[in-house]
Amino acid sequence: MSDLLRIENLTVHFDTDDGAVEAVDGASFSIRPGEIFGLVGESGSGKSVTALTILRLLRPPARIVSGRIAFEGRDLLALAAADMRHVRGARISMVFQSPRTSLNPVLPVGAQLERVIRLHAGASAREARERALAMLRECGISEVERRAAQYPHQLSGGMCQRVMIAMALATSPRLLLADEPTTGLDVSIAAQILDLLRDLGHRTGASILLITHDLGVVAGLCDRVAVMHAGQIVETADVRRLFHAPAHPYTRALLRSVPRVDREFAMEPIPGAVPSLLAPPPGCRFASRCPVVMPECRIERPAVTLLEVDHTVSCFAAVTPVRAGAPAEGGDG
Amino acid sequence: MLGWYVAKRILLAIPTLFGVTVITFALTYLLPGNPALVKAGPLATPEHIREMERQMGLDQPVVVQYGRYVTGVLRGDLGESSMTGRPVLQDLMQRVPATLELTLASLVVAVLAGVPLGVIAAVRRDGIVDHVSRLLGVAGVAMPTFWTGLLALYVFFYALGVAPPPLGRLDNSVTPPMTITGMYAFDALLTGHWRALGSALHQLVLPALTLGFSVMAPLMRMVRATMLEVLESDYIKAAWAAGLPRRTVIYGDALRNCLIPVITILGVIFGFLMAGNVVVEVVFAWPGIGNYAVTSLMSKDSGPIQSFVLFVAVVYVLVNLAVDVVYGLVDPRIRLH
Question: What are phi and psi of A103, to 5 degrees?
Fold first, then answer.
């Protein structure tokens, strides 16, 4: 199956007075039609920047240094601004992490939904209204007529996110970027929102790029996963493979940091923080936090290595298992 | 709901206005000079002056004088102008439309220039428009209006000859339109008196530009600052992500969310203009309440001055009320009760 989206060697810098912050560094991954692709990592690892780059929504001081984003056979980074506008919201749409502030506070939510439908589907006002109400209903909102006339501040956070999802999927996009869509929602509401995303994704055939720091969400929802650390993709794998045989020490550390009831040993936080991306040292960016660090890790950046089908890793230790210590500890998942 | 809110606010304004009457009364009471002396004229004998004082109630205790003043105000009696010899209320009512017309025209100038400049300055931050508008804003605030007014007259009336002479609201050869609102441009428009409309607008241009220029800066800076904040917000990011056209995002979504602070500043500017265009009215011989207040002050005519201050206070109270009501109309999150 050919890829819907293929990101190759994407590098994004933020220019500051002290130099360039290397927010995304040589990231490559691809998303297939109809799949849910997870992008995980700690805060500040460059997940959101990657998503915004796909839609070309980054503004100065952010700068795309290099890379290619192929979507439906076109390079989005080379597209004219007018053509890009017909991709945004129509072919690729996005759901943000703070539903209550992502809707315009002075417009009724129904009107916000309708105008997007009219814009991209060229529907009449009447058709747009019917489609908007149908979409709200499909997103699990009851009394849609009344809800559509309300303003964002009159709706709960979960309700707002349902509206955002309705807006994102109303134009039948092929790719939905969901940037931590459950942040700030109750656990039960968050679960409902994620179920909704999965159901609608399957029904419409849209692929979803799900950005999250929650490995539980990844396990329950995603088909394949990329793990991001300090602007670099360190491991990409099928979701089962990632949980059963994580290859990168950072992935293993992430898995160990998840509190679980079915495990006798306690959760372990990852030591240190994401290193400064302002002129980072050469070599692996995880080296300063890595339990199995080797001398070459600090000198050279490990290449992307294909371990088996659908499983790549960028780590010297992972490809020389003799010196890697105990790679089996993640295998209990 | 709205009517109840307005009624409550007006009731709440009454103590404020009473406070204002104390101040206006004290102001003229403490002002040096004897109004009886002015009214009696330069040739009056001391007996004549004392007689005048008794007639005007100036020999009474302060509290009694104040009481008479307030009861007069409540009955709509603002005293008599010794300068015009007519009731002050009548004088004011005749001049308010002139001031209102000039104020509204200046406000239009300030909005037409300030809002787009503020928007462009925010959208293209640190661009050429941002820098030029900042310079214009500083110049507008820093240069006193009597100077910019005179400069405008020198250039457009004296040197270029495109502006009319600064002699009031209409050319002498034009008959004023029938009085409906008292504002010539409006009345001329309503009655179809095109010659008067042309002349009224012609006369308005320079004073309105002078005043508009002086108050444009705070509006522009406010629009710029709020736009910068709004453009960074999540819902604007979401609007871009939805592929909405640039014009819709900037002028529809972003600017609409800037309205609250913009309306606040417009209210302040309106009140400021009603009271503060005194100097410009004098420069352009504009027969408004500012001009009236200045002439009265020159001749120690206390009634008109008191009434001018009181009138301005009432205007401020009403403008604040109007601003609050408009808040409720433009922002669904605000409910008036």
Answer: -105, 145
Tell me the nearest-neighbour CA distance from B336 into chain A, angstroms.
Answer: 16
Among B264, B179, B263, B169, which residue's Cα sits nearest to residue B208? B169
Taken in order of first residue, the domains within chain A and their CATH numbers are 5-222 (3.40.50.300), 228-330 (no CATH)
For residue B116, give the nearest of B129, B103, B101 by alpha carbon.
Answer: B129
Q: What is the set of domains in chain B, with CATH numbers?
A: 2-72 (no CATH), 100-287 (1.10.3720)
Tens digit of each residue's pLDDT (9 = 90 or more) over A53-86: 999 988 888 888 888 899 988 888 888 888 888 8
Q: Write down the pTM of the prediction.
A: 0.81
Distance from CA of A112 to the nearest CA of B (A): 9
List pLDDT tens digits, range A81-122: 888 888 898 899 999 888 889 999 988 998 999 899 988 888
* Residue A321 CB neighbours (<10 A): 11
Q: Do A153 and B244 touch (CB under 8 A)?
A: no
The ipTM of this complex is 0.84
Which of A52, A58, A102 best probes binding to B when mutated, by most B CB atoms within 10 angstroms? A102
* Contact: B243, A94; criterion CB under 8 Å: no
Q: What is the mean pLDDT of chain B?
A: 87
pLDDT, tens digit, 9 for 90 and up, residues A218-241: 888 899 999 998 888 999 999 999
Identify from B226, B236, B244 which residue to disrupt to test chain A contact, counting A C-beta atoms within 10 A and taking the largest count. Answer: B244
Report the SS3 class of residue A208: strand
Asked if A174 and A91 count as a contact pair (C-beta separation under 8 A), the reply is yes
Pairwise CB contact (< 8 Å): B242 & A102 = no
Burial of A282 (0-12, 13-18, 19+ CB in 10 A): exposed
